[in-house]
Amino acid sequence: MKIFRLLYTLLLISFIANAQHSERCASETLLANYLKNNPNEIEKFKKNEANLQQLINRNFRFKSTEEIYRVPVVVHIMHVGESIGTGSNISEAQILSGIQQLNDAFRNENGLGIDMGIEFHLAIQDPNGASTNGIIRYDASGIPGYASDGVAIGTDPGADEADVKAASKWPNGQYYNIWIVSEIGGNDGGFGTQGFAYFPGTSAAYDGTIIQHTSWGDENGTANFWNNLGVTLVHEMGHALGLYHTFHLQSSGDTTVNGCPQNSDCSLQGDLCCDTDPHFESESFTCDTSEINPCTGTPLGNVVRNYMDYSSQECQIMFTQDQKDRMRAALEGTRKGLLLSRGLDEPIAACEAVDPAGCTPQTDETGLEGNYAGVGIVELEGELHHISYTAFIDGGYVDNTNECAITSFLKIDSNYVLNVTPDNAPTNPTYLKAWIDYNNDGSFDVSELVLNESGIGENILSDSLTIPNDASQNEFIRMRVLLDLIPISDACSSPTYGQAEDYSLYLYIPGQITSGIKENMGIHTLTVFPNPANNIIHVNFDYSKNEEVLLHIRDVQGKLVKSKTINSSSKILSQLDVSSFGMGLYTLSMSNSYGMHTTTFLVK
Fold first, then answer.
1. Do the Cβ atoms of 320 and 303 come closer than 8 Å?
2. Active-site annotation holds for 236
C-alpha cells in the first residue's frame, strides 16, 4: 500500500505540473488545476483511488448475473431566455435523445465492446418526494459573463462555473447533475472545449458535468454534425465515474524515452486500466486500428476505438473490462449514494413539516475531507430502514425529516428495537447516540436519549425503547442519530469524523370508539386494514340493522376528505382509495340513526 501511495502521489504531482489547456475535453486539465489550487485535496484523491482499487480487487471481476446499476440524472438547461426548443433552450426530444445515446453506449448496444451494466435515467422524484421529469430550465442570462460567453474555462471568458451550478443544482449525493450550456469559453458552441466532468470525490460545489448544447443529442436537434453521436456525453460520464483518458499523462513528464506514458505497471500508471495500451493522443478520422502504436510496437487496436480517446466520433464505440471495473467500483464507493437515491422511485405525497430542531450539528472539515465514518444503516423494528454513508459522501449533517418514504409511525406505549449498523472501517472505534424529541420542544433532553452505545467497525449497535404515553401524539416529531469515532457529549455536538442524521417519527394511539355504542348501531367486528395504509384501505364489519350506514373520513383538521353510503348487509367489506390522501392520521366514522362509531387509521 505504501508503494501504491508513493507512485500515485508522483502521478498526481506530474499531472498537476504539466497539464495543458488544449483539449476538447477539459476534465483532466480541470482536475489538475483543482488539485494544484487545493493541495489538501490530493490526500483525499489518493485515499479515494486506494479505496477504489480495494473494491476492484475485492468485488470484481463481475459476475455474469450482475446487477444493473441505475443512476438518477438531473439535466439543467442553462439557456439565455430563448423559448423552449430554440437555441440553447433545447427541446425535451433532444434531451431524451442524448440520454438514449448515453445508455446505448454504456449497455453496449452495438455489440462491439463490453456492457457496463450501468444506466442513466432522468429523475422522477425530486428531493422533497414530489414528481419531476428530471429537467430543470433556468434562464442563466443574469449570471455575470454567461449571456456573452457561456461558462468560463481556464483563461477563456465566461461565467464562473460554480455560480452556474449553484443556480440550480440538486444534492449531488442523490442525483447526478448535468448542465447543458450555451457555450464554453466564448466558443459560440463550436470547436474548442465541448464539455467537462469532475472525478468522484470532487467538492460538491464543482461536481457534475457541463456540456454545450451543440454537443448533446442526435442530428434532429442543435448538435453540430461532427458531434451528434453522443460520444462527448459518454466520454464525460466516463470521467464522472473515475476513468482517465487512454493516453493519460502522455505530456506530463511521466514518460519513457519515447515520450510515451509509462506503463511498466499498468495498475499504477497511465490510465490505470491494463487492457488499454499506452499511446499518444489520437485525432484519427480513419479509425485505422492496424496503425502501429509507437509505444508498444504493435497495432493500435481498440484504443483508437475507445470512448476515452480523442479519435473522431465515428471511431469512439467501446469501453473495456477494466474500465467497467473502475466505473462500477466508483458507484460502489464514492458515488454509492446515487445507487440508493430515491430519485428513481415513484413520487410520494408531500410530508407534513417537522418542527425545526434547536441545533444542527455539522461535521468538522476533517470528516468532510476524508472518507472516515457515517451513520450507515438505521432500522427501527419494521417501521424504518434507511441506508446512508460517510460524512464525506453525504456532506455531514443529513435532515431526513422531509423524506416521507422513511417516516416511521409508532404506537404510544409500545416497544421497539433501534438498530444502527455504522459505515466505518473494520478497526475504527464507534460511538453512537440517538435521541427522540418526545415532547417536541425542539431540544433533545437527557431523558430523551434512547441509544448510547460504542463498538468497533461496522458491528451493529442496538437498544430497545418504549414510546412513553405522555409523548406528543398525532404529530410529527424528530429523532436524531449521531455517530463519531470519538466520544459524543450531547445532541448538539459537531462530529469530528462522523455525522448526525435526523428522522421524522409519527406517534399515535390506535383507533378506538369515541362516541356511540357500536352494538346498538348493529356494527360488530369492525376492522380497517392495512393500517398504516398506502393506497387502499378495506373497511370490514358485520352489520345487523336494516338501514344504510354513512361513512365519513376526516383529516386531523376535521376536514371531510371522503364520504360513502354503504347499503345494509349482514357482512360488509368496502374498499376505499386513499392514494390521494396526504401522509398522516385520519378519522373514519360510521353513523346511522342509532349513533356513531369512530376509529382512526394512518396513511404513510
1. no
2. yes
For the chain, the 3-state helix, strand and coil shares in percent, each to the nearest 5, are: 20, 30, 50
Half-sphere exposure of 5 (CA within 13 A, CB side): 9
Specify whether the CB–CB gap between 113 and 101 falls below 8 A: no
Q: CA-CA distance, 195 to 151, in Å (whole number)? A: 10
CATH numeric code, 523-603 = 2.60.40.1930
Please pick, among 23, 161, 236, 383, the residue that the annotation labels catalytic: 236
| All structural domains of the chain with their residue ranges | 26-48+69-241, 247-305, 365-508, 523-603
Query: Which of the listed ranges 21-25, 65-69, 361-365, 384-388 does the model predict with the highest average pLDDT?
Result: 361-365
C-alpha cell at 580: 390521494
| Whether the predicted model's global pTM rises above the 0.90 cut | no
pLDDT per residue over 403-425, tens digit each?
Answer: 766 777 788 888 999 999 898 87
Percentage with pLDDT > 70 across the chain: 84
> What's the grid cell of residue 196?
467537462
Q: What is the CATH number of domain 365-508?
A: 2.60.40.10
**CB proximity list for 369: less than 8 A, separation 6 or greater:** 40, 41, 43, 44, 392
Q: What is the pLDDT of residues 230-287, one digit of tens each?
A: 999 999 999 999 999 888 765 444 555 466 777 777 777 778 888 888 877 765 556 7
* Closest by CA position to 333, among listed 40, 57, 125, 7: 57
Residue 89 has a pLDDT of 98
Measured in Å, how far apart are the chain's first and last C-alpha atoms?
A: 49
Measured CA angle at 71 (ends 500, 26), to 5 deg: 95
Q: How far apart, in whole angstroms, are the C-alpha atoms of residue 243 and residue 270?
A: 11
The residues, ordered by sequence, that sit 6+ positions from 380 with a Cβ below 8 Å of its Cβ are 408, 410, 416, 417, 418, 419
Whether the CB-CB separation of 328 and 301 falls below 8 Å is answered with: no
**Among the CATH numbers 3.40.390.10, 1.10.287.130, 3.65.10.10, 3.30.450.40, which is that of 26-48+69-241?**
3.40.390.10
Cα-Cα-Cα-Cα torsion 444, 447, 450, 451, nearest 10 degrees, comes to 90
